[in-house]
Amino acid sequence: MQEQRQVVTVEDTEAPPRNFVFVLLDKFSLLSFASGLDSLRIANRMANKQLYTWRLLGEGGESVTCSAGTEFKLDSDLEELQRDDVILVCGGVDVQAATSKRVLNWLRREARRGLRIGGLCTAAYTLAKAGLLDNKKATIHWENSDSFIEEFDEVELTKAVFQIDGSRMTTAGGTSSIDLMLKLIADDYGEDLANAVADQMIYSSIRTDQDTQRLSTPTRIGVRHPKLSQVILMMEKNIEEPISPSILATDVGMSTRQLERLFRRYLSRSPKRYYMELRLHKARNLLMQTDMSVINVALACGFASPSHFSKCYRAHYNTTPYRERGAQSGRLSV
Predict the structure, then answer these.
(1) What is the phi-psi region of residue 202: left when phi exceeds 0, alpha when psi lies from -120 to 50, beta otherwise?
(2) Pairing state between β 71-73 and 18-24
């Protein structure tokens, strides 16, 4: 079958191809990496010229295994790069263990030399650990946001699918790498080429840094009542210092009994029970994804005492916080 494609004309330039350096951490997310790399390949194909090149680097320079178990051969060890290179660190499962001192020191050195550096999927953790996201906006997969916020309070974490702040870039994981790369391609060569790349990938809804990772609360849980949705959002934003149902009801202009009825109707549980489940869910994330003590986890989730926290946790998850911590060896996984 003869190949047919529409070539997108880009402005002739004598500048060399822009080189992307993908740094693959152990157990990196294959989807995030492949989404970013293939966007560059397709851009070259649609322009019928080599606009972009890429290399695969990693600690040791031999090979690295993704979270799906497939091994990838690396082009090189962590080496000094060209100043125009763009670094994209690819994270995935247990990014804390994969974020070695050597990786951190290498990133800091390249950052001092002025290179643009991005983190795909959980690699926002790696960039933050290196101090490269201090006083900048960043994003990470929603599943890892609780632990990230606790450890890196100097970073302004957003819920965007990707975030660009100066020379730093982060994505939330999965297909959000496509959105970031389409933005970079559009900045380099225009919207026509970026749209052509999206069409080739059957990517019909290009997202921007204004789009959030998850569906809105009403859509996600099937709630259509605006006041109930407002209360749920207030609960989500006030985990460490819970607000009483009576105050929540007053804030949205209804009685406590009306709020109780809404929760029973739409969520089959009381406001108190729903709030408790939100707090326990955050606590479980922190236990599995951070080194925070059980006492500090309890305080961060609005429990005044470890004993009360343990009792509520056991009732909901059928195990204690201490056993949960001991059973979890992998952290910050996607």
Answers:
(1) left
(2) unpaired
List residues bridging with 53 in a β-sheet. Answer: 19
- Is the pTM higher than 0.85? The answer reads no
Residue 120 sits at the vertex; the CA angle it makes with 117 and 125, to the nearest 5 degrees, is 80
pLDDT for 63 equals 96
Residue 10 maps to a domain: no
* Residue 43 in domain: yes
The C-alpha torsion from 134 through 137 and 140 to 145, rounded to 10°, is 80
Domain containing residue 268: CATH number: 1.10.10.60
Do 141 and 53 fall within a single domain?
yes
Name which of 84, 89, 18 is nearest 54 in CA terms.
Answer: 18
Asked if 87 contacts 77 with a C-beta cutoff of 8 angstroms, the reply is no
User: Which DSSP category does 28 fall into?
Assistant: B
**Amino acid identity at 64:** V
* Contact call for residues 116 and 83 (beta carbons, < 8 A): no
* Mean pLDDT value of segment 14-26: 93
Please give the Cα distance from 256 to 5 (Å, whole number).
Answer: 62
* 24 or 202, higher pLDDT: 24
Q: Could you say which of 173, 200, 227 is where a domain stops?
A: 200
Question: Which candidate, 95, 74, 99, places its Cα nearest to that of 21?
Answer: 74
- Containing structural domain, residue 108: 18-200
Specify whether the CB–CB gap between 23 and 87 falls below 8 A. Answer: yes
Q: Is the model's pLDDT at 77 over the cut of 90?
A: yes
Residue 145 located in a structural domain: yes
Cα–Cα distance, 11 to 86 (Å, whole number): 21
Q: For residues 57 and 75, give the distance between their C-alpha atoms in angstroms, rounded to a whole number.
A: 6
**Whether residue 234 is found in the same domain as residue 276:** yes
Q: Of 168, 200, 232, at which residue does a domain stop?
A: 200
- The pLDDT tens digits of the residues spanning 217-275 come to 666 666 678 888 889 989 999 999 999 999 999 999 999 999 999 999 888 899 999 99
